[in-house]
Specification:
The chain is of the alpha/beta class and 128 residues long.
Length: 128
């Protein structure tokens, strides 16, 4: 069972956020209004993990980016953390902490933090 099942990323401008995440994740996203004043775009779930976790971008009153004050969510980069970070900057985001090697004995992984176009601080994680 996955530790996390669902993630919601608050956005100020859903159309701008969709453009950012389409470029960074190299995918397509569809905007929909689930109810009046509650617009969303579902994030893709990898085909090899159809049970989740899942998530969406959410634009609604009273739910905004927390910047450095909220929970931190990390995307999985596979082996392409450098390409991911390049796409973040090309799509209008900015790197907060560059790729850093995390070592625990003989194992290693990489982690970086970035801001999306909405002000959310998010991470990218990749095995070493």
């Amino acid at each position: 069972m996955p530790l996390f099942d669902w993630i919601e990323i608050p956005v100020v401008n859903l159309d701008r956020a969709v453009r950012f995440y389409v470029a960074v994740l190299e995918t397509s996203l569809e905007v929909m209004e689930l109810q009046p004043g509650y617009r969303v775009a579902f994030l893709p779930v990898p085909e090899d993990t159809p049970a989740g976790p899942g998530g969406m971008l959410v634009e609604t009153e009273g739910f905004g980016p927390a910047g450095e004050q909220g929970c931190r969510v990390c995307f999985g980069a596979g082996a392409d953390i450098d390409g991911f970070l390049m796409r973040v900057e090309e799509a209008g985001g900015r790197i907060s902490q560059p790729k850093t090697c995390l070592r625990d004995g003989d194992s290693a992984a990489y982690l970086a933090w970035f801001y999306d176009t909405e002000g959310n601080l998010l991470g990218i994680h990749a095995p070493g």
